[in-house]
Amino acid sequence: MAESEDIFLRAKHRTFRGLSEDAERQWKGPFCFIQAADPQLGLMKAWRDGDCDSGGEEWAEEVELTKQAVEAVNQLRPRPRFMVLCGDLVHAMPGREKAQEQDLKAALTGTDPSIPLVFVSGNHDLGNTPTPRTVEQYCNAWGSDYFSFWVGGVFCLVLNSQLFYDGSACPQLKEAQETWLEEQLSSKPKPKHILVFQHIPLYLKSPDEDDDYFNLQRAVRQHLLDRFHKAGVKAVFSGHYHRNAGGCHGGLDMVVSSAIGCQLGKDTHGVRVVVVTADDVVHRYYSLEQLTTGGLDEDLRELLKA
Ligand SMILES: [Zn+2]
Asked: pTM here?
């Protein structure tokens, strides 16, 4: 089997090479991982043309940026334990431009085989109102739309935030994720930390801000926040905003990361480095250039030595 296929199969079946799930339940010391979002192949040109409703005609820039991100991540030492892409993998809505998906996969094949890729579904991957068919298409292309995994004593949940945003066209799938999530949050051996990955942020700055295209609706948000607080979730990582934002409230860190691809604010194309220590989860957004030329900052490297 080709190495490129192997990367995606591993993600699909959630079996990380060389790691058995049992071994990953144990804390063995600090580690880092990469959180990135919105490569969204096709948006940069569409945004410049002022035509974001189309699927985008060109995506060579995003392919180049994704390759740059992969190279920057590959050269980090110690190696990140995994890289999670928090949704909007491509710009075209489901079924409209298969080539974007193929080109993203090709751009990601350079990822070092020791760094598993974890995929999260975004609104552009599933449609703003997902249907059983678009969810199935996503799962066939990228793996399950929600699942959990352990890494180094940390419990990670990947969620389909589109089912929170608008599950009206697939009520059974929405319900199934709710039931599963309840189960995941309640019964498990005590992890060092619990982390959540989803595309749409719960909020951008404050838990009580108004509804917006870029956050989850207040009632949905509050319900999730209550459950996450109760379960002791440490941080929720997201994208969708194409700007860095977020904030820590009541011990829960809502992290909103800018994009590998199109920037809608003043941030640069980049990825977030997350350092997990026994007591804390520390993260920092790096521009691709900064990460390529300078690697990790000294203080983060120190944390990883502890
Ligand atoms: Zn999005």
From this structure: 0.95
